[in-house]
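WARN  no MSA supplied for this record, continuing single-sequence
INFO  ligand: adenosine monophosphate
INFO  echoing inputs
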Amino acid sequence: MEVGVSLQRAIELTSQLTLAREDETIPLIMASGRTLFEDLRSMVDDPRFDNSAMDGWAVREADCKELGAILRIVGTSQAGSEEIPTVDAGEACRIMTGAPVPQGADAIVMVEDSTVVGDKVTIDGPARPGFIRWKGENLTRDTVALRAGTVLTPASVSLAATMGHANIRVVRKPNIAVIGVGDELTPPGEPLSESSIYESNTFGLSSLVERMGGTPRRLDLIRDSMDRLRETLDEAAASCDAILTSGGVSMGEWDMVRRIMEEEGDIRFWKVMIRPGGPPLFGSWRGKPIFGLPGNPVSSHIVFTVLVAPWMSSSMGSEDGTRPRLANRVRVEMEESLKGAPGKLCMRRISIRQEGDKLLGSTRTHQGSGNIHSMVAHNGLSLLPPDSDCQEGDTIDALWLI
Ligand code: AMP
Ligand code: MG
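INFO  complex generated
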């Protein structure tokens, strides 16, 4: 077990334990946000046939060298029509956007550049081959246009449909157990005793799991019993792909997650040099990856964002460039000073706003790691390197939360 690792080292260590990568086939309409399990080949050429990019006239370019050419109208090519006239010398065929280019034609004149008189059309503008979209110019049949590991965006779902796929093989969503630990915790909706508080982390963490493409499974809250904790961890390991706990990982006597993991689990690291969120642990329980997240609501949220989220997406095999994430790294000019943390990467909540071509950062509420409102009132996190403060006007690295 390593104790007190840097965030970078923590990320390296988490990559040693990955999620089981299984597949399922789902209807394309459900596939946005999912990770492709296999390469997707096009079943067709795109475009399927030479077609017009404009409403206008399909002509022979050679007939239209001079403005004012008069051509005989031979018919119409509409999108979806099967019978298309051919175009011979001195002829023009009316054509709609997306309609097949008639045999014999090699250029399109825009409708705006024409005048129709009876069965003749006068060409008042250029005839352009460039207004023809050629068969296969976007994609040819059998080309792999979407690679395994791509996380499907709305545009890639549209491309998959263009390629003819009704159903898609994607990586199965991992089931992630979410377990709250603490004697004082009461679910919202139930009566509070003098010393209890509403439990919130399993709600926040479950939402984060969903955002990252997993299925959260909230299990029973664990109050004061090691036996209940063991049973629940066993149930989680048997039914889920990974386990998140919150609370019970710091130094206190009652910090049951750390104790049970020390005695019966396999801990890869404990404590990361970050603030807030110092005490997380990572390892495995009965063969399943487990993150013991801190109990403070802000800490658990931030540790999920910087540690669990990247682990989830890389562990699901998502391609780097397409991975879902909870934040973008940006440079922010601070409008006020920020205090860093000795020996730790300091992630203070900041508000990021765009002004001209700059991003400006400021703080709004107080920064206690128990104050989840601070995550709501701000949209970013500073990334102050260990032992460094920032002065008003300094430009710093930050995470802009999405
Ligand atoms: P712990 O890490 O268990 O020492 O908890 C640190 C702080 O977070 C304490 O103030 C707890 O009451 C609070 N806390 C722990 N778990 C939760 C939870 N699931 N929801 C809300 N607050 C929590
Ligand atoms: Mg506790």
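The chain has four domains: 2-22+173-315, 24-44+144-171, 51-133, 327-401.
INFO  checksum written, moving to next record
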